[in-house]
Amino acid sequence: MTAHFLNRKEEEQRVVTICEIRPQPDVLAIKFNVPRGHVIKTSDLVWKQVETIQDTFTQWQDVVGMETIRPLRLNEVLHAKDVHAIPLVRSNEIVTVFSRVGGIVVKRQMKARATG
């Protein structure tokens, strides 16, 4: 780039500047403050430009439906360590267990001992 300007004596001056322009990648960030355990929806997401995309999400399909592991702040970039898949059973929930052998079916309600 060349910048042209006039000095105090009304003489034209030129300054040559060399620039390197690199696009910054877009990654997903959280649009609002969300608590731990929040299930992420498309309306919770916003695009944000960052310098590096390591361990971040670049497609909304990869993060929608995931649950937050910790509270997330407004405009915070989502990292893989911040979310996980929603567990089918949580610790201490009551679940119905079926056992079927031949024509015999046993059904019982039990308390889950762990998340899974």
Folded structure, characterized:
The chain folds into 2 domains: 62 residues, Antifreeze-like/N-acetylneuraminic acid synthase C-terminal domain (Type Iii Antifreeze Protein Isoform Hplc 12, Alpha-Beta Complex), CATH 3.90.1210.10; 29 residues, no CATH class. The strands form 4 sheets. Strands 1-2 form a two-stranded antiparallel ribbon. Strands 3-4 form a two-stranded antiparallel sheet. The chain has 116 residues and is mainly beta. Strand 1 and strand 2 form a beta hairpin.
Low-confidence segments, given as residue ranges, are none
CATH top level assignment of the largest domain: Alpha Beta
Instruction: List the domain count as a whole number.
Output: 2
Radius of gyration: 27 Å
Largest sheet: 2 strands, antiparallel
CATH architecture heading of the largest domain: Alpha-Beta Complex
Query: So how many helices?
Result: 0
Strand proportion, as a percent range, falls in 25-35%
Order of helices and strands: EEEEEEEE
Mean pLDDT: 91
Shape: rod-shaped
The assigned structural class equals mainly beta
Largest beta sheet: strand ordering: 1-2
CATH superfamily of the largest domain: Antifreeze-like/N-acetylneuraminic acid synthase C-terminal domain
Tally of strands: 8
Q: What is the CATH topology of the largest domain?
A: Type Iii Antifreeze Protein Isoform Hplc 12
> What distance separates the N and C termini?
59 Å
